[in-house]
Each structure stands twice: as C-alpha cells, then as structure tokens.
Amino acid sequence: xxxxxxxxxxxxxxxxxxxxxxxxxxxxxxxxxxxxxxxxxxxxxxxxxxxxxxxxxxxxxxxxxxxxxxxxxxxxxxxxxxxxxxxxxxxxxxxxxxxxxxxxxxxxxxxxxxxxxxxxxxxx
Length: 124
Prior knowledge:
It contains 4 helices and 8 strands, in the order αβαβαβββαβββ. It is of the alpha/beta class. The strands form 2 sheets. It has a 4-stranded mixed sheet. A 4-stranded mixed sheet has the order 5-8-7-6, with no helix packed on it. A hairpin with a 2-residue loop joins β3 and β4. The longest helix has 13 residues.
C-alpha cells in the first residue's frame, strides 16, 4: 500500500456487544445482576421492553427476549488472576453453580438460566 493510500484510508472503530436470546428478559437480567454482579445499563420501553443491556466493567451483554429463538450463546471473558479469584469468591457467596471445563485450557463455566455459557479461562 502506498503512503498516499494509507493516509486516505478511513479508520473505523468497531464496538461489538454479544446478544443472548432469553425466554424472560427480566428473569435473565436479575440473574446477571443479582448472581453475577452486573449492572443494568438500559432497558427498552422504559423497563417494559424485551431488550436490555447488562454491564460488568467492560463486559457488555444485550439480553433479548424472543420466543422464536432458542439458540444458546457462549461468551469468553478473560479476567486477571486476582479478578478471577475475586469473582470465584462472589460466585460461592451467591451460591451460583459453576463447573470446570476444558476449552483449550482450564476454564470456569457459568450457565445462565437459558443455557447461555460464560467461559472464564484460568490465567497462566
């Protein structure tokens, strides 16, 4: 690529958020908030709609209630060693079921009420 072409090329910021399909958006939001420590960022139709977003730090997830979708999703969330230690403690305190799994390396798995999977790999 020539220098002139590089200067005229437009640079765009990509900002992505996963969408997880759920059977009851309110129940799912409460799970993420009460059990996993997320905060509700917004909820469509002033809290009465079928779509909302929950955030935990830089992890942002959109929950969408859609009777036609029965898909399951998976989110891969990397935490620092100290962050994972603190998160594991919170999960125990809140009695959140977890399991250890292998996904290229040792990984903590949390399933939401609709079977969507959150994977937290163990830092090396």
